[in-house]
Amino acid sequence: MTEDFDTEKARASAWFRTLRDDIVAAFERLEANHDTGPMADATPGAFEVSETKRTSDDGSDAGGGLMSVMRGGRVFEKVGVNISTVYGTLGERAQMAMAARKGIPGMKDDPRFWASGISLVAHMQNPHAPAVHMNTRMFWTPHAWWFGGGSDLNPCIEYAEDTAHFHDQQCVHLDPHGEDLYPKLKAWADEYFYIPHRHRARGVGGIFMDDRCTGDWEADFALTQDIGRAFLPAYLPLVEKRRVQDWDAADKDAQLVHRGLYAEYNLVYDRGTKFGLETGHDANAVLMSLPPLAKWV
Predict the structure, then answer these.
(1) What pLDDT digit, counting tens, does each position of 171-183 carry?
(2) Are 120 and 134 in contact (CB under 8 A)?
(3) Contact 155/130 with Cβ under 8 angstroms?
(4) Is 197 considered catalytic here?
(5) Were both Cys, which of 52, 57, 95, 181 would link to 282 (CB 3.0–4.6 Å)?
(6) What is the mean pLDDT of residues 206-221?
(7) How many angstroms separate the CA atoms of 86 and 63, rounded?
């Protein structure tokens, strides 16, 4: 495979920016409209936006992105919505990990790569409002290309109707791409977001895919876009419903303990965290998924 995919790369990168803008605007509206319920008297939160830069070992430009983080809002305790487009050459450890997982020939001879994506994690003020994660991405090397990503819900206090709504929206957006796809990606999420050392899932699941390359770039890109489009209709109604509920000290304690579980997963198992740190991306952007406060008991 020798195509540079310049047009496809540009379209994917532009889409991730569009999705980021839509989500940031929707989250800031939630903050502005929170005028009843707990913390309604607090100051609405707003995103702080900063550019991230990445350089190669020789000092040359290797891409970057935008880090958008809101801290201490009245709905969101901490939420990050990051986009990046990075490129360069894969280090030896990254090459070995990728070759072992994908069996890509020629990686050692030509380790160039390009990657673009969006990554989102939201930790809420109200323990009844679920935390959430979403990311989608495109990866290219001279030897292969693929898409990945998904979203999953992480409540500390579970509501069956919230879980059902979140999954229903994933199914609605995936069914046009094949009715067998949602069950497959749901099962993949259940497997991927499992914490072996705790013998449990980190949340109530969602959808997940990796290494998506059917050979039809347009079809795979369309699926990736619909995974992104599913996010707001799947998540916003849950926050709207739960942000006005009262909570007590026991609810907050349950939230902090659950956040400890979330932090363990992201630091020990998450591929995105490992890849970001391994390839020299901004550590603050890579680790923005960590909660502002957590507790271990």
Answers:
(1) 999 999 999 999 9
(2) yes
(3) yes
(4) no
(5) 52
(6) 96
(7) 4
Residues in contact with 218: Cβ distance below 8 Å, sequence separation at least 6, in sequence order: none
**One-letter amino acid identity for 59?**
G
Q: Which of 34, 123, 133, 143 is catalytic?
A: 133
Q: Which residue is listed with tokens 């201490």?
A: 72
Residue 1: the pLDDT is: 46
Mean pLDDT of 227-245: 98
First-to-last alpha carbon distance for the chain, in angstroms, is 51
Work out the mean pLDDT of the chain and round it to a whole number.
92
Grade residue 95 by pLDDT with cuts at 50, 70 and 90.
Answer: low
